[in-house]
Write a structure and sequence with these properties.
binds flavin-adenine dinucleotide, five-stranded antiparallel sheet
Length: 395
């Protein structure tokens, strides 16, 4: 293999490029990114950067010397606009056609928007700086969507003294992901601080003065942040023949078609550990999948299924949430350690007869790491959870 192109210059794309070099690939390595900045980290955007605790320079994923050492054909500030599978070329917005023998797609996701103008979204450094500039004590911020991103931004804005309203269409925020009881606990933290959280509220439109609800009511705001989920960046692949459908569809090796792989938020791949196809929007997964895709592309004879236990964290106020596994679609939740009411607990999740996930709030990392191992080992629920529960009862 003499020419490899990686499209998307963020967590997954960078990890892929570094892995290729580390594994001995010495051909041409083109890294294409539509953002002008070298790769930077997104999780701090809704945490330390928004809170003005960190400045932009702390977000860089690598120094310029690290990037130079990778000997990249680096194309920043230019989007990939098309893929020709037969000729094996990627078309760029500047008119270049870049040939490849191997391709890794790592174009991530972008925020969903609502009808109307003027709302903030939170995906890029510019987005975060723009919102940060507008947050000040007493300013009214309406956050639409109480998922992890909306909740983190609401928490920071509250700490900065803004008057925060959090609007969520579901009766209990995050219930579809973490279950109703855990969702309620994660929700109460906002109410305790005096954030005006309203559930079961759908927003139809963003206006100059706030957001409009279906019955015509206007919830007034100085600033509106829309955090209602995201869409995979796959439009540039439309018509290419790559299988698409809420992401780039891949097999368990992260391959989508011969010598074309996908990684990170944009990739929907079959995770054999859980026996389902999934698309994960987590920082750790992006890096791990970038590495896995690069290795499999480079050494197809020794390729290995990508079968991780996904990991996610979120910081809100003084609450630290950590989760392992695949919680969506779970059948049962059990609290195996701590106490929900005290907001210090480990909850584990059952899907079928397996332990499929674990979520901890306010617990030491080792309290949940054991559960990570159980998930990785495919532990059977009725053996593992009952035994664990009786241990904690006995102590
Ligand atoms: C505000 C915020 C907070 C977060 N907090 C957490 C957290 O606490 N914990 C956690 O686990 N995860 C968190 N995440 C998620 C995490 O940041 C993502 O999972 C991770 O960034 C995914 O990396 P990626 O490389 O797959 O995609 P991205 O980071 O989305 O990068 C894709 C890159 O490709 C570029 N691109 C898109 N289309 C094209 C094209 N056609 N041509 C060229 N380039 C293109 C994009 O502009 C982007 O630069 C957070 C995300 C955000 C936005």
């Amino acid at each position: 293999m003499k020419r490899i192109v990686v499209v998307g210059a963020s967590a997954a794309g960078l990890a892929a490029a570094e892995t290729l070099r580390r594994e001995g690939y010495d051909g041409i390595l083109t890294l294409v990114g539509d953002e002008a900045l070298p790769p930077y980290d997104r999780p701090p955007l809704s945490k330390q950067l928004l809170a003005a605790e960190w400045e932009s320079d702390r977000l860089a994923l690598r120094t310029s010397a690290d990037l130079a050492a990778l000997d990249l054909d680096l194309r920043l500030g230019v989007a990939a606009t098309g893929l020709e599978l037969t000729d094996r070329t990627v078309a760029l917005a500047d008119g270049c056609e870049v040939p490849y023998d191997g391709l890794i797609v790592a174009t991530g996701v972008r925020p969903r928007r609502l009808p109307g103008e003027g709302a903030h979204v939170l995906r890029t450094l510019d987005d975060a700086l723009r919102l940060r500039d507008r947050l000040a004590p007493g300013r009214r911020l309406v956050v639409v969507g109480a998922g992890f991103l909306g909740a983190e931004a609401a928490a920071v804005a509250w700490r900065l003294g803004a008057r925060v309203t959090l609007l969520e269409p579901a009766p209990v925020p995050l219930a579809h992901a973490v279950g109703t009881e855990v969702g309620e606990v994660l929700t109460r933290v906002h109410l305790d601080r005096g954030v005006d959280l309203r559930c079961g509220v759908t927003v139809t439109e963003v206006t100059e003065d706030g957001v409009r609800l279906p019955d015509g009511e206007l919830v007034e705001a100085d600033e509106v942040l829309v955090a209602v989920g995201s869409l995979p960046n796959t439009e540039w692949l439309d018509g290419s023949g790559l299988p698409l459908g809420d992401g780039v569809l891949c097999d368990e090796y992260c391959e989508t078609t011969r010598n074309v792989y996908a990684a990170g938020d944009v990739a929907r791949w079959y995770n054999p550990l859980f026996g389902v196809a999934m698309r994960i929007e987590h920082r750790t997964n992006a890096a791990e999948q970038g590495m896995a895709a690069a290795r499999n592309l480079l050494r197809p004879e020794a390729r290995r299924p990508f079968a991780p236990v996904p990991y996610f964290w979120s910081d809100q106020y003084d609450m630290k949430i950590q989760a392992y596994g695949f919680l969506r679609g779970h059948d049962e939740v059990a609290v195996v350690d701590g106490d929900l009411a005290e907001r210090r607990f480990v909850a584990v999740y059952r899907t079928g007869d397996r332990v499929s996930g674990a979520l901890a709030v306010g617990m030491p990392p080792k309290a949940i790491r054991l559960w990570r191992q159980a998930i990785a080992a495919g532990a059977v629920w009725h053996e593992t959870v009952r035994a664990e529960a009786s241990v904690s009862e006995a102590s």
